[in-house]
Write a structure and sequence with these properties.
alpha/beta; Aspartate Aminotransferase, domain 2; Aspartate Aminotransferase, domain 1; 2 domains; seven-stranded mixed sheet; five-stranded mixed sheet; 14 helices; 12 strands; 15% strand; binds pyridoxal-5'-phosphate
Length: 386
């Protein structure tokens, strides 16, 4: 069955009323016939019919055995880290999401879980970093904000050989563009706040496990720790899933046009987009992703914060805000926003330089978006505001 058909078919019609839209079961508890005899639901932290629908849909979309929905992407990440115990070591992509960096280095370090950051764009670096305590490999591909690509299949082979869990944060690609479980990963995570939610109106996280046993463990952690997604927010995600494919494809088509335009501008120094032939891992991206995605980052030749500032305050359609993956185009200056708490030398060394700009390309008309960027670039060129 075609993917879009199967997405739409996987959203059930309400058996009670025939309601085409999924009902929101806004309840915390359920009446029991006698103690322990119920209709499969006893308390909403454990199970909720609306949440179950989004959990089943994402499991199908990622080709896993079990999906779980959390109150945010970080709550989803937190649940996965709880599979580990004191003394375990994690190897992670060096351009890891800032919130995950903070969680590992300031919260889980207190519980004896250590993390080692490596440049995973070369799979052999991962192999070299493994010790007998390594229990988890943590990838993002593409990464935020540098759009680095790692070979998920090659790293999955290394992980499997040594019995290490491979986790992929698939937020940037979405399940439409990339299916890490098919490439050998064990667990996929999404900040559904981004593309899956897609309308900048809900905070949510999703986890999908390939093997049922791992799915059961994660389900246990979800219920035991309680960071579940609310029924209404689950409903918002179900609503968004229906347009996920057409949105993500359109985001990507718009982004490719913008990246091609940016290639023609000589005030730009580095341009990061996995859909450009000169991206260092263009071939891997092409193999493991259906399309390059909707995020672009770039820096200016003078590499100053002033140029970045002038650009982000000059765009009109691209609104200056954190987050990404929504219908409306957003622009962000990582050095002063998402990476503000990272020491300057650390972030510059990693490639997040003073003038780096991140674009989350929305669903507006591509021509309008290019004109908006063009007029802002002209201002940077002349150094004039207004
Ligand atoms: C935003 C984001 C997260 C965190 O998700 P929240 O929903 O904000 O908690 C995790 N990973 C990536 C790649 C993200 O972009």
């Amino acid at each position: 069955m075609n993917e879009l058909t199967s997405i739409l078919e996987s959203i059930p019609v309400d058996p009670l009323t025939g309601s085409v839209a999924v009902p929101i079961y806004q309840t915390s508890t359920y009446v029991q016939e006698s103690p322990g005899v119920n209709k499969g639901f006893d308390y909403t932290r454990t199970n909720n019919p609306t949440r179950k629908i989004i959990e089943d849909i994402v499991a199908k979309l990622e080709n896993g055995s079990r999906g779980l929905a959390f109150a945010s992407g970080l709550a989803a990440i937190d649940a996965v880290v709880k599979l580990l115990k004191s003394g375990d070591e994690v190897i992670a992509v060096d351009d890891i999401y800032g919130g995950a960096y903070r969680l590992f280095t300031t919260v889980y370090n207190k519980f004896g879980i250590t993390i080692k950051f490596v440049d995973t764009t070369d799979a052999s670096n991962v192999e070299k970093a493994i010790t007998e305590n390594t229990k988890m490999i943590w990838l993002e591909s593409p990464t935020n904000p540098l759009l680095k690509i790692s070979d998920i299949e090659a790293i999955a082979k290394i992980a499997k050989k040594q019995n290490i869990l491979l986790v992929v944060d698939n937020t940037f690609a979405s399940p439409i563009l990339q299916k890490p479980l098919n490439l050998g990963a064990d667990i996929v995570i999404h900040s559904a706040t981004k593309y899956i939610g897609g309308h900048t109106d809900v905070l949510a996280g999703l986890v999908v496990a390939r093997e049922p046993k791992l799915g059961e463990e994660l389900k246990y952690i979800q219920n035991a720790t309680g960071g579940v997604l609310a029924p209404f927010d689950s409903w918002l995600l179900i609503r968004s899933i229906e347009t996920l494919k057409i949105r993500v494809e359109n985001h990507s088509q718009n982004a490719l046009k913008i990246a091609r335009f940016l290639q023609t501008r000589d005030e730009i120094k580095t341009l990061n987009y996995p859909g450009l032939e000169n991206h260092p891992n263009f071939d891997i991206a092409k193999r493991q992703q259906k399309l390059p995605g909707g995020i672009i980052s770039f820096s200016f030749k003078d590499d100053t914060e002033e140029s970045a500032n002038l650009f982000v305050t000059s765009t009109k359609i691209f609104k200056l805000a954190e987050s990404l993956g929504g219908t409306k185009s957003l622009v962000c200056h990582p050095a002063s926003m998402t990476h503000k708490s990272t020491p300057r030398d650390v972030r510059v060394k990693a490639g997040v330089t003073d003038s780096l700009i991140r674009l989350s390309v929305g669903l507006e008309d591509a021509e309008d978006l290019i004109l908006d960027i063009e007029q802002a670039l002209d201002k940077v060129k002349t150094g004039k505001r207004g």
